[in-house]
Amino acid sequence: MEMADETANRGEQHQPEPPSGPAPPEAPPPPEAAAQPSTQSKRTLWIVVAIVGVVVLCSMCSCAGLLGLGSVLEEEIEIADETATEPVEEPKPPEDPEETAPVETLDSVEETEGEPAPGTRGNPLPLGTTARIGDWEVKVTEVNLNANEVIASENPFNDPPADGTQFILVTLEAKYVGEESSTFWASMSYKFYGSAGNTFSSGGAVIPSPIRDAGETFPGAEIFGNVLFEVPSDQIDSGAIIMEESLSFRDTRVFFAVR
Question: How many CB atoms lie within 10 A of CB 127?
C-alpha cells in the first residue's frame, strides 16, 4: 500500500510542466466536403433542357412552315388574280364543213407558165369553178353529155335530136353581186363550143328546171337551173361552155370545161 502511493507520487513529480507563455491557437477544423449534386438532380436537369430544346425546335419549324404556307397562298392568290383577269373565250359553234370548204374561183386557179390563161378557150375552167362575169358569179356544177333520154321523158312532145347529134344538159349556179337587180337569162349569153371550132346555141326542147325560170334577182340572191344544147356527137370531145355578158362592150367571155 505504501509502495503504491510512493509510486504514484513519483509519477506526479516527474510529469512535465506546460510551457510558459500564451497558448498556441487551435487548428481550424477541416473544411467540409462540397455538396455534390445527386444523380436524380442531374437527370431532371437534362430532361428540362431536352424539353426546352424540343419546344424551341418545334417553334422554329412552325415558323418556317407558316412562312412556306404563306408563300404558297400568295402564289395561289396571284395565279387566281391572273386567271380572273384573263378574258374568257366563248366556245365557238361547230363549223359547217360545206361553209368552210374553200371555193375555187377563177382568181384561185394558178396560171402555169407556157399555158393559156385559165378560163380561156385553150384552158377552160374545171367543173365547179366560180367565175365573175359582169355582175354575176357563175359556175358549171354538172354536165350530162348525153341527155337524150332525160329530154324524152321530160315531155312526150319533145322531138328527138337530129341524126348525128345529141342533147347536152348543163346545170348552172349563179349569184347576183351587182347593186340594183338583174335577170340572168336576159343579161347572160351562153353557147356550146365544139371541138371543131363551131358554136351551138341553147334551146330546142322542154327541159327540167330551166335557168330561164329564174326571175329578177337582187344583190346576194342565188339561182340555179339547166341549159340545153344540141351538139354533133363528133364535136363533144374537148368541147366547152362559153358564157359572157349580153350587150356588153367589155371582154367578159369565160370558157368552162364539160368534163
Answer: 17
